[in-house]
């Protein structure tokens, strides 16, 4: 099992601010994909025309931690978990991110690692300045988008 | 042992173009840090006032692969390797990146993973448009810079 790990610090923000961007449809649509919805505790993120991800919300500890389990999407993603740990460090809220449980370090994992970094910076920008870069206006990192 | 993995595609570029940005002092100074030098097969990357990294060049296979070994820098980095695999995919040159052999997935590894993504996008921009964002003008991702 291999993991994608990232860390960003959101300036002049509280863990509550970041938590809101991770647990509301409006918040999520502001940094990951505008095509976000929720049905019965499952978050649906779509990236037309490519496809998307369904995340079961496993854990929400206000202003501290969010954990999702991937229940639908690309084969390599299914069964993996995505977790977000939040804590205050001075004027920053630090986000520790993990996308864990990849069976193999396939090339698609390399791509997803780089894309996650751009989406974390989109989340940081959303909370800091009110404007993220969600799909379809996300940062293109290469031939796989 | 745990690894940081990334993948970017550089548009309208040949593997030779990317290889040059990875194997010349001018190229490296254009996307990672302006304070780059080489002495006896060791690349010295400095990020004043924080410190830096010394990389022994283990392998250079023109337009295909570059491998470095970290011989000086932060304790967690020493002994790890950084490798770059290049290949053509249509109008893109794909870069597969690995920073391998971390002993533990410490929080500093999360930070370095996100920073590497920003430097890979800096490298992509340098080769595509002639302008990267090397330190000291690199993308700030949080309280750890």
UniProtKB/TrEMBL annotation, chains A, B:
<dbReference type="InterPro" id="IPR013538">
    <property type="entry name" value="ASHA1/2-like_C"/>
</dbReference>
<feature type="domain" description="Activator of Hsp90 ATPase homologue 1/2-like C-terminal">
    <location>
        <begin position="12"/>
        <end position="128"/>
    </location>
</feature>
<dbReference type="InterPro" id="IPR023393">
    <property type="entry name" value="START-like_dom_sf"/>
</dbReference>
<dbReference type="Pfam" id="PF08327">
    <property type="entry name" value="AHSA1"/>
</dbReference>
<protein>
    <submittedName>
        <fullName>Activator of HSP90 ATPase</fullName>
    </submittedName>
</protein>
<comment type="similarity">
    <text>Belongs to the AHA1 family.</text>
</comment>
């Amino acid at each position: 099992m291999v993991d994608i790990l990232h860390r960003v610090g959101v300036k002049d923000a509280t863990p509550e601010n970041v938590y809101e961007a991770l647990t509301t449809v409006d918040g999520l649509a502001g940094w990951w994909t505008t095509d976000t919805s929720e049905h019965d505790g499952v978050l649906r993120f779509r990236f037309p025309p490519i496809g998307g991800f369904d995340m079961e919300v496993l854990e929400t500890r206000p202003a501290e931690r969010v954990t999702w389990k991937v229940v639908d999407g690309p084969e390599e993603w299914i069964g993996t978990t995505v977790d977000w740990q939040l804590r205050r460090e001075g004027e920053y809220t630090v986000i520790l991110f993990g996308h864990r449980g990849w069976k193999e370090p396939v090339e698609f994992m390399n791509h997803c690692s780089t894309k996650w970094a751009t989406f974390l910076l989109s989340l940081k920008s959303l909370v800091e300045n009110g404007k993220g870069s969600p799909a379809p206006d996300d940062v293109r990192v290469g031939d796989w988008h």
